[in-house]
Known about the structure:
The chain is mostly helical. The two termini are 35 Å apart. Strand 2 and strand 3 (181-182) form a beta hairpin. It has helices spanning 6-20, 22-25, 34-39, 44-67, 75-91, 96-118, 123-144, 146-149, 200-221, 223-240, 246-271, 281-294, 301-314, 321-327, 333-343, 351-365, 369-381, 387-396; strands at residues 155-156, 177-178, 181-182, 186-191, 194-199, 273-274. The model is unreliable at 391-400 (pLDDT under 50).
Amino acid sequence: MLGLEKKDFRLLMIVVVLTMLAPFILNPFPAESALGETFNAGYPDLMQRFVIFGIFAIGFNILFGLTGYLSFGHAAFLGVGSYAAIWMMKLVTLNVIPAIVMGVIFAGIFALAVGYISLRRSGIYFSILTLAFAQMSYALAYSVLTPITGGETGLQIKATDSPLLSNLEPGEIGRANLFGMDMRTSFELGIGDWLFTFNSGYYIAAVFMLISFYIAIRIFRSPFGTMLRAVKSNQTRMYYTGLNARPYTLAAFVISGMYAGLAGGLLVAMDTQAGPERMFWTASGEVVLMTILGGVGTLIGPVLGAGAIKYMENILSKINKDILHEWFAILPDGIEDFLVTIIYPFVGKGWHLTLGLIFMAVVIFLPGGLVEGGQRIARLFGRKKTKGDGEEATQSTPAE
Protein backbone atom coordinates (compact mmCIF):
# COMPACT_ATOMS: atom_id res chain seq x y z
CA MET A 1 0.00 0.00 0.00
CA LEU A 2 1.04 3.61 -0.69
CA GLY A 3 3.73 2.20 -2.97
CA LEU A 4 5.56 0.59 -0.05
CA GLU A 5 6.63 -2.95 0.59
CA LYS A 6 4.84 -4.81 3.36
CA LYS A 7 7.70 -4.38 5.82
CA ASP A 8 8.02 -0.64 5.17
CA PHE A 9 4.26 -0.12 5.36
CA ARG A 10 4.19 -1.92 8.71
CA LEU A 11 6.99 0.34 9.98
CA LEU A 12 5.11 3.44 8.79
CA MET A 13 1.96 2.28 10.59
CA ILE A 14 3.93 1.74 13.79
CA VAL A 15 5.25 5.30 13.58
CA VAL A 16 1.73 6.60 12.87
CA VAL A 17 0.30 4.83 15.92
CA LEU A 18 3.14 5.95 18.21
CA THR A 19 2.82 9.54 16.97
CA MET A 20 -0.96 9.76 17.26
CA LEU A 21 -1.00 8.18 20.72
CA ALA A 22 1.98 10.15 22.03
CA PRO A 23 -0.09 12.06 24.64
CA PHE A 24 -0.93 8.70 26.25
CA ILE A 25 2.46 7.05 25.81
CA LEU A 26 4.44 10.01 27.16
CA ASN A 27 2.29 10.35 30.29
CA PRO A 28 2.66 6.92 31.97
CA PHE A 29 2.33 8.22 35.54
CA PRO A 30 -0.51 10.05 37.36
CA ALA A 31 -0.27 13.81 36.82
CA GLU A 32 0.02 14.77 40.50
CA SER A 33 2.44 12.01 41.49
CA ALA A 34 6.14 12.63 42.07
CA LEU A 35 7.05 10.38 39.14
CA GLY A 36 4.49 12.08 36.92
CA GLU A 37 5.78 15.58 37.68
CA THR A 38 9.32 14.42 36.89
CA PHE A 39 9.10 11.92 34.03
CA ASN A 40 5.86 12.67 32.18
CA ALA A 41 6.74 14.23 28.82
CA GLY A 42 3.30 14.56 27.26
CA TYR A 43 3.09 18.34 27.28
CA PRO A 44 2.77 20.26 23.98
CA ASP A 45 6.13 22.04 23.81
CA LEU A 46 8.18 18.88 24.32
CA MET A 47 6.01 16.70 22.05
CA GLN A 48 6.39 19.29 19.30
CA ARG A 49 10.15 19.22 19.69
CA PHE A 50 10.14 15.42 19.46
CA VAL A 51 8.57 15.42 15.99
CA ILE A 52 10.24 18.60 14.68
CA PHE A 53 13.74 17.48 15.54
CA GLY A 54 12.76 14.04 14.26
CA ILE A 55 12.23 15.69 10.85
CA PHE A 56 15.62 17.41 11.18
CA ALA A 57 17.32 14.08 11.94
CA ILE A 58 15.47 12.20 9.16
CA GLY A 59 16.73 14.72 6.61
CA PHE A 60 20.28 14.61 7.95
CA ASN A 61 20.20 10.80 7.73
CA ILE A 62 19.39 10.99 4.02
CA LEU A 63 22.76 12.68 3.50
CA PHE A 64 24.92 11.01 6.15
CA GLY A 65 23.24 7.62 6.29
CA LEU A 66 23.07 7.04 2.55
CA THR A 67 26.10 8.86 1.14
CA GLY A 68 28.43 8.86 4.15
CA TYR A 69 29.02 12.62 3.83
CA LEU A 70 29.14 14.02 7.36
CA SER A 71 27.94 17.62 7.53
CA PHE A 72 28.79 19.70 10.59
CA GLY A 73 26.79 22.69 9.35
CA HIS A 74 23.20 21.55 8.97
CA ALA A 75 21.99 23.98 11.63
CA ALA A 76 22.51 26.76 9.05
CA PHE A 77 19.59 25.41 7.02
CA LEU A 78 17.48 25.12 10.17
CA GLY A 79 18.16 28.80 10.86
CA VAL A 80 17.53 29.94 7.29
CA GLY A 81 14.21 28.09 7.31
CA SER A 82 13.26 29.76 10.58
CA TYR A 83 14.10 33.27 9.36
CA ALA A 84 12.24 32.78 6.06
CA ALA A 85 9.17 31.51 7.92
CA ILE A 86 9.10 34.33 10.48
CA TRP A 87 9.40 36.99 7.78
CA MET A 88 6.57 35.37 5.83
CA MET A 89 4.40 35.58 8.93
CA LYS A 90 5.44 39.16 9.72
CA LEU A 91 4.86 40.48 6.19
CA VAL A 92 2.27 38.34 4.39
CA THR A 93 0.14 35.97 6.47
CA LEU A 94 -0.04 34.31 9.87
CA ASN A 95 -1.10 31.06 8.26
CA VAL A 96 1.66 28.56 8.97
CA ILE A 97 1.49 26.73 5.63
CA PRO A 98 2.97 29.54 3.46
CA ALA A 99 5.56 30.20 6.18
CA ILE A 100 6.64 26.57 6.24
CA VAL A 101 6.75 26.42 2.43
CA MET A 102 8.99 29.51 2.32
CA GLY A 103 11.24 27.97 4.97
CA VAL A 104 11.69 24.86 2.84
CA ILE A 105 12.33 26.84 -0.36
CA PHE A 106 14.90 29.23 1.10
CA ALA A 107 16.70 26.43 2.94
CA GLY A 108 16.82 24.43 -0.29
CA ILE A 109 18.30 27.36 -2.24
CA PHE A 110 20.90 27.99 0.45
CA ALA A 111 21.71 24.25 0.59
CA LEU A 112 22.22 24.25 -3.19
CA ALA A 113 24.77 27.06 -2.91
CA VAL A 114 26.59 25.53 0.07
CA GLY A 115 26.53 22.03 -1.39
CA TYR A 116 27.80 23.15 -4.78
CA ILE A 117 30.97 24.45 -3.11
CA SER A 118 31.37 21.97 -0.24
CA LEU A 119 30.91 18.84 -2.33
CA ARG A 120 34.04 19.65 -4.31
CA ARG A 121 35.76 17.98 -1.36
CA SER A 122 34.99 14.82 0.59
CA GLY A 123 35.78 13.36 3.98
CA ILE A 124 36.96 15.65 6.74
CA TYR A 125 37.45 18.52 4.27
CA PHE A 126 33.76 18.43 3.36
CA SER A 127 32.82 18.40 7.05
CA ILE A 128 35.03 21.39 7.84
CA LEU A 129 33.65 23.34 4.87
CA THR A 130 30.06 22.83 6.02
CA LEU A 131 31.04 23.83 9.56
CA ALA A 132 32.68 26.98 8.22
CA PHE A 133 29.55 27.93 6.26
CA ALA A 134 27.37 27.37 9.32
CA GLN A 135 29.56 29.49 11.56
CA MET A 136 29.72 32.25 8.96
CA SER A 137 25.94 32.14 8.75
CA TYR A 138 25.69 32.36 12.52
CA ALA A 139 28.07 35.33 12.61
CA LEU A 140 26.12 37.13 9.88
CA ALA A 141 22.80 36.51 11.65
CA TYR A 142 24.22 37.55 15.02
CA SER A 143 25.77 40.85 13.98
CA VAL A 144 26.17 41.86 10.33
CA LEU A 145 22.59 41.20 9.17
CA THR A 146 20.93 42.55 12.30
CA PRO A 147 18.25 44.53 10.37
CA ILE A 148 17.11 41.24 8.79
CA THR A 149 17.74 38.76 11.60
CA GLY A 150 17.22 40.86 14.71
CA GLY A 151 20.75 40.10 15.88
CA GLU A 152 21.20 38.62 19.35
CA THR A 153 17.53 39.08 20.33
CA GLY A 154 16.20 37.46 17.18
CA LEU A 155 12.83 38.05 15.52
CA GLN A 156 9.29 37.55 16.74
CA ILE A 157 5.81 38.75 15.86
CA LYS A 158 5.13 42.15 17.42
CA ALA A 159 2.14 44.45 17.84
CA THR A 160 3.58 46.70 15.13
CA ASP A 161 3.47 43.89 12.54
CA SER A 162 0.52 43.93 10.15
CA PRO A 163 0.69 40.99 7.73
CA LEU A 164 -0.82 41.77 4.34
CA LEU A 165 -3.40 38.96 4.40
CA SER A 166 -4.33 39.08 8.09
CA ASN A 167 -7.04 41.30 9.53
CA LEU A 168 -5.54 42.47 12.82
CA GLU A 169 -6.75 45.29 15.00
CA PRO A 170 -4.24 48.12 15.64
CA GLY A 171 -1.86 47.04 18.40
CA GLU A 172 -3.00 43.39 18.26
CA ILE A 173 -0.25 40.76 18.34
CA GLY A 174 -0.86 38.15 15.67
CA ARG A 175 -0.85 34.43 16.40
CA ALA A 176 0.26 31.60 14.17
CA ASN A 177 -2.70 29.63 12.85
CA LEU A 178 -3.76 27.04 10.32
CA PHE A 179 -6.68 28.57 8.42
CA GLY A 180 -7.89 30.19 11.63
CA MET A 181 -7.00 27.41 14.08
CA ASP A 182 -4.56 28.67 16.73
CA MET A 183 -1.43 26.57 17.11
CA ARG A 184 -1.75 26.82 20.88
CA THR A 185 -5.24 25.36 21.04
CA SER A 186 -5.27 22.39 23.41
CA PHE A 187 -7.82 19.92 24.77
CA GLU A 188 -7.26 18.16 28.09
CA LEU A 189 -8.64 14.72 28.87
CA GLY A 190 -8.72 13.49 32.45
CA ILE A 191 -8.95 9.76 33.15
CA GLY A 192 -8.74 9.06 36.87
CA ASP A 193 -5.50 10.57 38.13
CA TRP A 194 -4.08 10.83 34.63
CA LEU A 195 -4.24 13.99 32.53
CA PHE A 196 -3.61 13.93 28.77
CA THR A 197 -3.15 17.04 26.61
CA PHE A 198 -4.02 17.08 22.90
CA ASN A 199 -2.49 20.11 21.20
CA SER A 200 -3.32 21.25 17.66
CA GLY A 201 0.21 22.47 17.02
CA TYR A 202 1.66 19.08 17.94
CA TYR A 203 -0.63 17.16 15.60
CA ILE A 204 0.07 19.53 12.71
CA ALA A 205 3.81 19.05 13.23
CA ALA A 206 3.23 15.30 13.59
CA VAL A 207 1.48 15.14 10.21
CA PHE A 208 4.47 16.86 8.61
CA MET A 209 6.78 14.38 10.34
CA LEU A 210 4.80 11.41 9.03
CA ILE A 211 4.86 12.80 5.49
CA SER A 212 8.60 13.38 5.82
CA PHE A 213 9.09 9.84 7.09
CA TYR A 214 7.09 8.42 4.18
CA ILE A 215 9.15 10.41 1.65
CA ALA A 216 12.35 9.18 3.32
CA ILE A 217 11.18 5.57 2.91
CA ARG A 218 10.52 6.16 -0.79
CA ILE A 219 13.98 7.73 -1.20
CA PHE A 220 15.67 4.85 0.62
CA ARG A 221 13.94 2.25 -1.59
CA SER A 222 14.30 4.12 -4.90
CA PRO A 223 17.02 3.77 -7.56
CA PHE A 224 18.19 7.19 -6.41
CA GLY A 225 18.71 5.78 -2.93
CA THR A 226 20.63 2.88 -4.42
CA MET A 227 22.95 5.30 -6.19
CA LEU A 228 23.54 7.15 -2.92
CA ARG A 229 24.47 3.87 -1.23
CA ALA A 230 26.90 3.24 -4.09
CA VAL A 231 28.52 6.61 -3.36
CA LYS A 232 28.98 5.56 0.26
CA SER A 233 30.23 2.11 -0.69
CA ASN A 234 32.85 3.04 -3.29
CA GLN A 235 32.65 6.36 -5.09
CA THR A 236 35.89 5.71 -7.01
CA ARG A 237 34.44 2.58 -8.55
CA MET A 238 31.40 4.59 -9.66
CA TYR A 239 33.66 6.99 -11.54
CA TYR A 240 35.44 4.04 -13.20
CA THR A 241 32.09 2.82 -14.53
CA GLY A 242 31.39 6.22 -16.06
CA LEU A 243 28.91 7.46 -13.44
CA ASN A 244 29.30 10.96 -12.04
CA ALA A 245 28.46 10.84 -8.35
CA ARG A 246 28.36 14.58 -7.76
CA PRO A 247 24.80 15.27 -9.07
CA TYR A 248 23.49 12.54 -6.75
CA THR A 249 25.35 13.82 -3.69
CA LEU A 250 24.29 17.41 -4.44
CA ALA A 251 20.66 16.31 -4.76
CA ALA A 252 20.91 14.46 -1.44
CA PHE A 253 22.48 17.53 0.18
CA VAL A 254 19.69 19.81 -1.06
CA ILE A 255 16.95 17.39 0.03
CA SER A 256 18.58 17.12 3.43
CA GLY A 257 18.77 20.91 3.67
CA MET A 258 15.09 21.21 2.76
CA TYR A 259 14.21 18.82 5.57
CA ALA A 260 16.14 21.10 7.93
CA GLY A 261 14.27 24.10 6.52
CA LEU A 262 10.98 22.31 7.16
CA ALA A 263 12.01 21.74 10.77
CA GLY A 264 13.00 25.41 11.09
CA GLY A 265 9.68 26.56 9.65
CA LEU A 266 7.77 24.32 12.05
CA LEU A 267 9.74 25.71 15.01
CA VAL A 268 8.54 29.18 14.02
CA ALA A 269 4.99 27.94 13.51
CA MET A 270 4.98 26.61 17.07
CA ASP A 271 6.57 29.56 18.95
CA THR A 272 6.67 32.42 16.35
CA GLN A 273 10.26 33.46 16.98
CA ALA A 274 13.64 32.87 15.38
CA GLY A 275 17.15 33.57 16.63
CA PRO A 276 20.76 33.01 15.56
CA GLU A 277 21.32 30.34 18.24
CA ARG A 278 19.60 27.84 15.95
CA MET A 279 22.54 28.18 13.55
CA PHE A 280 25.30 27.65 16.09
CA TRP A 281 27.66 24.68 15.69
CA THR A 282 26.25 22.92 18.76
CA ALA A 283 22.89 22.58 16.99
CA SER A 284 24.65 20.87 14.07
CA GLY A 285 26.46 18.56 16.48
CA GLU A 286 23.17 17.71 18.15
CA VAL A 287 21.62 16.34 14.96
CA VAL A 288 24.76 14.25 14.37
CA LEU A 289 24.34 12.76 17.85
CA MET A 290 20.65 12.09 17.21
CA THR A 291 21.37 10.17 14.02
CA ILE A 292 24.24 8.11 15.42
CA LEU A 293 22.40 7.38 18.67
CA GLY A 294 19.31 6.18 16.84
CA GLY A 295 21.09 4.32 14.05
CA VAL A 296 22.83 5.74 10.97
CA GLY A 297 21.29 4.59 7.71
CA THR A 298 18.12 3.23 9.34
CA LEU A 299 14.67 4.64 8.76
CA ILE A 300 13.30 5.00 12.27
CA GLY A 301 16.64 5.40 14.06
CA PRO A 302 16.99 9.21 13.67
CA VAL A 303 13.48 9.70 15.07
CA LEU A 304 14.32 7.55 18.10
CA GLY A 305 17.62 9.39 18.58
CA ALA A 306 15.94 12.79 18.40
CA GLY A 307 13.32 11.70 20.93
CA ALA A 308 15.93 10.28 23.32
CA ILE A 309 18.11 13.40 23.30
CA LYS A 310 15.20 15.84 23.64
CA TYR A 311 13.76 13.73 26.48
CA MET A 312 17.03 13.85 28.39
CA GLU A 313 17.46 17.55 27.67
CA ASN A 314 14.03 18.41 29.07
CA ILE A 315 13.44 15.72 31.70
CA LEU A 316 16.81 14.71 33.15
CA SER A 317 17.91 18.33 33.23
CA LYS A 318 15.18 19.31 35.70
CA ILE A 319 16.01 16.64 38.30
CA ASN A 320 17.65 18.50 41.19
CA LYS A 321 18.87 17.50 44.64
CA ASP A 322 15.47 18.09 46.25
CA ILE A 323 13.84 15.59 43.88
CA LEU A 324 16.59 13.04 44.53
CA HIS A 325 16.15 13.43 48.30
CA GLU A 326 12.40 12.79 47.85
CA TRP A 327 13.14 9.59 45.95
CA PHE A 328 15.47 8.19 48.62
CA ALA A 329 13.75 9.64 51.69
CA ILE A 330 12.73 6.16 52.85
CA LEU A 331 16.39 5.13 53.25
CA PRO A 332 18.64 5.94 56.24
CA ASP A 333 20.12 9.43 56.08
CA GLY A 334 23.67 8.27 55.41
CA ILE A 335 22.67 6.04 52.47
CA GLU A 336 20.29 8.72 51.17
CA ASP A 337 23.01 11.38 51.11
CA PHE A 338 25.47 8.95 49.53
CA LEU A 339 23.09 8.04 46.68
CA VAL A 340 22.22 11.68 46.06
CA THR A 341 25.92 12.57 45.93
CA ILE A 342 26.61 9.76 43.45
CA ILE A 343 23.62 10.37 41.14
CA TYR A 344 23.39 14.18 41.11
CA PRO A 345 26.39 14.75 38.77
CA PHE A 346 24.53 12.76 36.09
CA VAL A 347 21.24 14.71 36.20
CA GLY A 348 20.23 18.35 36.39
CA LYS A 349 22.96 20.50 34.90
CA GLY A 350 25.07 17.37 34.44
CA TRP A 351 22.67 15.62 32.06
CA HIS A 352 25.25 16.03 29.28
CA LEU A 353 27.48 13.62 31.19
CA THR A 354 24.74 10.99 31.04
CA LEU A 355 24.27 11.65 27.33
CA GLY A 356 28.02 11.30 26.76
CA LEU A 357 28.15 7.96 28.58
CA ILE A 358 25.14 6.65 26.66
CA PHE A 359 26.68 7.81 23.38
CA MET A 360 29.97 6.07 24.22
CA ALA A 361 28.15 2.86 25.11
CA VAL A 362 26.17 2.95 21.85
CA VAL A 363 29.25 3.56 19.70
CA ILE A 364 31.21 0.78 21.44
CA PHE A 365 28.56 -1.89 21.98
CA LEU A 366 25.75 -0.94 19.54
CA PRO A 367 27.27 0.51 16.36
CA GLY A 368 23.82 0.31 14.79
CA GLY A 369 22.35 2.57 17.49
CA LEU A 370 19.10 2.10 19.34
CA VAL A 371 17.67 0.26 16.34
CA GLU A 372 20.33 -2.44 16.67
CA GLY A 373 19.58 -2.66 20.39
CA GLY A 374 15.90 -3.19 19.63
CA GLN A 375 16.74 -5.85 17.06
CA ARG A 376 18.92 -7.72 19.56
CA ILE A 377 16.15 -7.66 22.15
CA ALA A 378 13.65 -8.90 19.54
CA ARG A 379 15.95 -11.78 18.65
CA LEU A 380 16.22 -12.76 22.31
CA PHE A 381 12.47 -13.10 22.58
CA GLY A 382 11.99 -14.47 19.07
CA ARG A 383 11.42 -18.07 18.16
CA LYS A 384 14.65 -20.02 18.34
CA LYS A 385 15.62 -22.12 15.37
CA THR A 386 15.74 -25.83 15.86
CA LYS A 387 19.05 -27.56 15.62
CA GLY A 388 17.99 -29.22 12.39
CA ASP A 389 17.09 -25.91 10.80
CA GLY A 390 20.43 -24.48 11.84
CA GLU A 391 22.33 -27.38 10.32
CA GLU A 392 20.32 -27.16 7.11
CA ALA A 393 20.95 -23.43 6.83
CA THR A 394 24.66 -23.96 7.44
CA GLN A 395 24.91 -26.62 4.75
CA SER A 396 22.96 -24.66 2.13
CA THR A 397 24.76 -21.36 2.61
CA PRO A 398 27.77 -20.97 0.32
CA ALA A 399 31.04 -19.64 1.68
CA GLU A 400 31.69 -15.95 1.13
